[in-house]
Specification:
The protein has about 300 residues and is an alpha/beta fold. It has helices at about 40-60, 80-90, 105-110, 155-170, 175-185, 190-195, 205-210, 215-220, 225-245, 260-265, 265-280, 290-305, and strands at about 5-10, 15-20, 25-30, 65-70, 95-100, 115-120, 125-130, 135-140, 255-260, 285. Strand 2 (about 15-20) and strand 3 (about 25-30) form a beta hairpin.
Length: about 300
Amino acid sequence: MRYVAGLDGGGTKTAVTVAEESGRVVHRFTAGPLNLNGQDEASVKATLHEIAANVGHVCEGGLAACVAMAVGAAGISNPTVSGRLTEGLREGGFAGRLVLVGDHETALWGAHEGPRGMILIAGTGSIAYGRNADGTVHRAGGFGHLIDDEGSGYSIGRDLLSAVVRASDGREAATVVTELVYARLGLSTVQELVGFVYAKERNKADIAALAPLLSAACEAGDASALRIAERNALALVDTASAVAEALGLAESGELALLGSVLLQSSQVRAAFKAGMAARHPRLRCIDARRDAAHGAMLLALSELRGVSAVRE
């Protein structure tokens, strides 16, 4: 019996799917994070060794029976990152075929159960990505929080913080966002808020963690919150439209919606879908059929069969 494995490496955990060569899933599990751009090398290797060992446990014949593995992770185009991944898995005993791709690639494979289609991810960051029937690929966004990531959790969190300070000095009307943000952070003044934002240890995930507050503020009918939801939704429309138009899928394609913003913020999701319907009436927005770990498994299976559309 031969097996394949798919890994979705994230900043908080790594999801793994193991399947027989027939495609039948035999096991799913989670391991530690693969934050390859910020995690120390020892921790990355420990996680990879743990994954290799667990895959070996569930395969009849041990790890040697796993003949192909695909890994989706952020920053994979960096040779240092891909080298650390390869080294860690090889040291863990994996000797089969190894495919390393960006996490948007495995998300696409999972969402559409194959290599073709389009995805829009709006989590901490944001990116749209797709591949058409000719194999042409296009991506839009995903260039980081300092210059991009519009419509993301970070973008919404920053907008909420901006609403607080703008309301405090009179540039905008009073907003319930102020109370919500102060309660979440345990603060009571703008000065304390500024200290929180510019603290040396602050990172983009801390700002993005405020994004869920938008829903409560919108439900209260807060004008500032409603503007934030609309502005970020329209930014996502621009991002997704760029991919749909570049691939010739604007009139017939399917776009899978992924990420915490689109899955948990009903206001942003509704405004986004309305914007897409107005711009591309025939394009369909769908939920992902499978997760990224399943997508990575399908990619590994496809590579084993020699029919993958991916060459990175």
